[in-house]
Task: inverse folding
């Protein structure tokens, strides 16, 4: 923004504004430039908000369009939970941080099921290991086996490294309300669900 | 050099406006841990020491760890090759029991199924690790082209594994 520096105001511009000390020129220039910048930033922010909302709706539809086999090999469409607050958790038995946060999900599923909360686990793992763990902690929500498609879905939703745990929260209208790489802290999950169930 | 009042006001305005926008932008972004891609978190290199021995090395970045029992090597359809995995740091895992992890550099000797003097082999590796921030990477298969020396020849140079596009491909 060197042009805004009063010392570099060109003689032509200064004379056009009939101003000897240059102060009016610099003030006007600053005003114009500042307004333009603020205006452009506001426009960009507005556009970004719209794009963001579009992206959330599109990503939510991608989640709801997912169909994966359950532990018995039956195809399970996520679309059956449209209209609920859907918490989709990507995990694996080889991921200790994933296993750590899951008993919390079991508890919240029990607590908030009647309010319209549905957890779904997508295991990026072998079915026998998954079955063992599901039994061990008495998981009370559907656990599906995610293959290549599930990894791609999680990448589409911003988890480029396909790292776990990765959790997506879809609101009642089908838009992605939150994505989380790494554990969801209990307080964070409660706050999120409270706001989405309100 | 005295600044004119207008300039001073404008500068002050930017001092306020720019951080305000930056804060607004940052507030809109979800807070997620910054993660290295697995190939950088667990840098793999390997060389042939002699016609029957490969030396593989993982350089594990600070804040990351590899699971010892999830490191495997193979050549072609050899199945898992015998590997001299040094003992790691013990860690209790509620599901898998006691497990060992590697941090920092770890050097592993791998025995080839048969002597391959003067040949170039594709060493396939599989490894899996996590970051201390609380996330784990999927198993990460990699492949390295290793030139094997002739019997009595000098060990080859270390070859580094390059980045991969997808862990499943």
Result:
């Amino acid at each position: 923004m060197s042009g805004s520096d009063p010392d570099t105001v060109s003689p032509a511009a200064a004379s056009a504004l009939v101003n000897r000390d240059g102060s009016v020129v610099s003030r006007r220039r600053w005003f114009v430039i500042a307004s333009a910048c603020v205006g452009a930033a506001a426009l960009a922010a507005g556009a970004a908000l719209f794009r963001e909302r579009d992206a959330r709706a599109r990503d939510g539809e991608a989640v709801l369009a997912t169909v994966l086999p359950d532990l018995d090999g039956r195809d399970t469409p996520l679309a059956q939970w449209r209209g609920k607050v859907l918490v989709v958790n990507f995990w694996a038995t080889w991921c200790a941080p994933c296993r750590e946060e899951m008993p919390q999900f079991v508890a919240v599923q029990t607590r908030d099921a009647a309010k319209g909360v549905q957890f779904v686990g997508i295991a990026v793992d072998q079915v026998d290991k998954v079955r063992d763990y599901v039994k061990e902690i008495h998981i009370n929500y559907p656990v599906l086996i995610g293959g290549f498609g599930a990894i791609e879905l999680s990448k589409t939703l911003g988890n480029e490294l396909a790292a776990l745990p990765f959790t997506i929260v879809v609101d009642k209208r089908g838009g992605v309300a939150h994505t989380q790489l790494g554990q969801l802290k209990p307080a964070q999950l409660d706050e999120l669900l409270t706001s989405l169930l309100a | 050099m005295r600044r004119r009042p207008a300039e001073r006001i404008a500068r002050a305005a930017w001092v306020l406006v720019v951080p305000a926008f930056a804060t607004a932008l940052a507030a809109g972004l979800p807070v997620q841990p910054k993660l290295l891609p697995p190939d950088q978190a667990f840098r793999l290199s390997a060389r042939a020491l002699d016609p029957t021995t490969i030396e593989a090395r993982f350089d594990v970045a600070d804040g990351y760890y590899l699971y010892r029992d999830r490191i495997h090597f193979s050549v072609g359809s050899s199945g898992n090759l015998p590997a001299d995995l040094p003992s790691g740091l013990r860690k209790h895992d509620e599901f898998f029991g006691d497990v060992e992890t590697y941090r920092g550099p770890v050097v592993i000797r791998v025995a080839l199924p048969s002597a391959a003097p003067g040949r170039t082999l594709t060493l396939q590796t599989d490894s899996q690790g996590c970051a201390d921030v609380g996330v784990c990477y999927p198993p990460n298969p990699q492949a390295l082209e290793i030139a094997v020396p002739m019997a009595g020849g000098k060990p080859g140079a270390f070859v580094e594994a390059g980045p991969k596009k997808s862990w499943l491909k």
About this structure: Confidence is low (pLDDT under 50) at residues 11-16 of chain A.
